[in-house]
Specification:
This protein is α/β, with parallel strands linked by helices. The protein has 3 domains: 7-138 and 291-362, FAD/NAD(P)-binding domain (3-Layer(bba) Sandwich); 148-287, 3-Layer(bba) Sandwich (FAD/NAD(P)-binding domain); 375-437, no CATH class. 34% of the residues lie in helices and 25% in strands. The protein is built from 10 helices and 27 strands. The strands form 9 sheets. A 5-stranded parallel β-sheet has the order 5-2-1-11-23. A 5-stranded parallel β-sheet has the order 13-20-14-15-16. It has a 3-stranded antiparallel β-sheet with strand order 6-7-10, with no helix packed on it. A hairpin with a 3-residue loop joins β26 (385-392) and β27 (396-401). α2 runs parallel beside α9. It is globular and about 70 Å long. Residues 10-17 have low confidence and may be disordered. The chain binds flavin-adenine dinucleotide. Flavin-adenine dinucleotide binds at residues 26-32, 54-57, 60, 63-64, 66-67, 97-98, 135-137, 155, 195-196, 199, 326-328, 342-345, 347.
Length: 446
């Protein structure tokens, strides 16, 4: 195991222009951006380490907001510019998509970056590290089902969410124009009745309502369907919560097909195991996650069956100098059947724990153990409702709904904003968003 000089001595070395400890964080999402920001403030600002954040995109949007991007209801000002964030918080941002690792040389490789016209703007690059943190999130798991890749939209990245939104607007416009002569409904099917699918369906319903208010009455002719393999909606959440959500979606006339296993998707229909053919113009795949396939070939790092990097209770992978946090990490959850679930609250907590471990590591002290605290789950059903359960030591699991649930749901995002912007800037951003939202259109139609 490598020994590092205590931070104080490093400070002295830095002034003698000897190389600083280099921390490379790959992925600036819910976990990686919080970690880069806190390490930047604690180490980068004092010149005690060099912190580099590598991400495949130039801006960050908190992933649980992607269904709002897809529906066109998210204010674009919620995007965080990585370069500005890095400047304010004393780390460096580099644009690039990691594609390989050499553990012996302690190097990672980023593929060349191209602009929209296909012109190469950044060549293939190499970054060396002393400590590497993998925080690359997850992608949708298609389980190898025929036709999914070719015929479905995904909500794994901001650009995919924007692409869906653009296609949806075009489809609305086409469908509305067609309705002038013949009444035809636009059907949208979402495969996966987890939080992503449920939140997206409610948000899309709200959009169709809003379009009708804007004068496009025909938009109410949109048919939404959720297809879920499990007999329960929101299979990972308590049955009581699932039932409350189910009732709310039924009121919105969102068609729920539970216990329906999809076996193939074509351009026109979704085929299920019991032979049903569900026609849908727009199909969204939101049925489970995995880490990207290339993670499985990462110079021998141990992974599980969904490509997540296996970490121990200190978030360390099978290599002493490489850690993993967020959705790409398979982290043990003592006392529970599975691993820590792939959630924003886990990513937030892991970033905070790993920050302490890295500070300790540079001081020659022991790593901090990560203990996942499940504070419950909340599902936002657009403007209609928010339902969820809160977990507490004294009260156990309590089901909540309505205004309180909405406030708690929003507080999850506020915690992320506070972690990356601090209290003052978060308050300013919240206020400015309130003003902007009252002055601008509620949905994006371009
Ligand atoms: C629509 C939706 C709604 C959700 N709602 C909730 C919710 O209500 N509550 C909740 O707790 N969780 C929710 N989640 C899950 C939550 O978003 C994730 O658990 C969380 O974002 C994981 O954080 P992360 O940092 O691991 O990954 P991400 O936040 O996905 O960040 C990964 C980052 O890595 C970058 N990256 C990926 N590959 C590379 C590469 N090769 N090289 C460089 N950079 C790369 C990406 O650009 C991205 O910035 C939701 C997810 C979705 C999709």
């Amino acid at each position: 195991m490598i020994k590092f000089l205590p931070i104080k001595e490093q400070g002295a070395l830095v002034s003698n222009s000897i190389r600083k400890h280099k921390i490379v964080i790959v992925g600036g999402g819910a976990a990686g951006l919080e970690l880069a920001t806190s390490l930047g403030r604690k180490l980068g600002k004092k010149g005690l380490a060099e912190i580099i954040l590598l991400d495949a995109t130039t801006t960050h949007i908190w992933k649980p907001l992607l269904h709002e991007v897809a529906a066109g209801t998210l204010d674009e000002a919620e995007q965080v510019d990585y370069l500005a964030q890095a400047y304010r918080n004393h780390f460096r941002f580099r644009l690039g998509k990691m594609e390989g690792l050499n553990r012996q040389k302690k190097e990672i490789y980023a593929s060349p970056t191209f602009n929209e016209s296909g012109e190469q703007i950044i060549p293939r690059r190499t970054f060396s590290y002393d400590t590497l943190v993998m925080a690359i999130g997850s992608v949708s798991n298609t389980f190898g089902i025929k036709g999914v890749e070719e015929n479905c939209f995904f909500l794994d990245t901001t650009s995919q969410a924007f692409r869906f939104q653009k296609h949806m607007v075009e489809s609305y416009i086409k469908s509305i124009a067609a309705n002038e002569t013949e009444l035809k409904s636009l059907s949208i099917a979402i495969v996966g009745g987890g939080a992503t699918g449920v939140e997206l369906s409610a948000e899309l319903h709200e959009v169709t309502d809003m379009l009708a208010v804007y004068g496009l009455e025909q938009s109410s002719n949109v048919k939404l369907t959720i297809i879920e393999a499990s007999p329960q909606l929101l299979p990972a959440l308590p049955a009581k919560l699932a039932l409350a959500t189910q009732n709310q979606l039924a009121k919105l006339e969102i068609d729920l097909k539970l216990g329906c296993r999809v076996v193939e998707i074509t351009k026109e229909v979704i085929k299920t195991l019991d032979g049903e053919m569900i026609p849908a113009e727009i199909k969204v795949w939101a049925a489970g996650i995995k880490a990207a396939d290339w993670v499985n070939r990462l110079d021998g790092l141990e992974t599980n069956q969904i490509n997540q990097l296996i970490v121990d209770e200190t978030l360390k992978t099978s290599d002493d100098d490489i850690f993993a946090i967020g959705d790409c990490a398979a982290c043990p959850w003592p006392g529970h059947k599975g691993n820590v679930p792939p959630r924003a609250q886990a990513a937030h907590q892991q970033a905070a724990t790993l920050c302490k471990t890295i500070l300790n590591r540079l001081n020659g002290q022991a790593p901090v153990k990560y203990d996942y605290k499940d504070y419950g789950s909340l599902v936002a059903l657009g403007k209609y409702s928010t339902v969820g359960n809160l977990m507490g030591n004294l009260m156990g699991s309590v089901t909540i709904g309505g205004f309180i649930a909405r406030v708690v749901y929003l507080s999850l995002y506020k915690m992320h904003q506070v972690a990356i912007h601090g209290y003052y800037r978060t308050a300013l951003l919240t206020l400015s968003n309130l003003f902007r939202r009252s002055a601008h259109a509620k949905i994006k139609m371009h």
